Amino acid sequence: VLDALKACRILEIDYRSRAEDQAKPRRIMPYGILTGARRYLVARTVDDPLGPVRTYRLDGVVAARVGNEGFERPADFDLQTWANRSFGVFQNETEYGEIVWRFAPHATDRARGHVFHPDQLLEDEPDGSLLVRFFASGYLEMAWHLYTWGDAVEVLAPPALKTMVEGYRRSDFPSLP
Question: The pTM is what?
Answer without folding.
Answer: 0.86
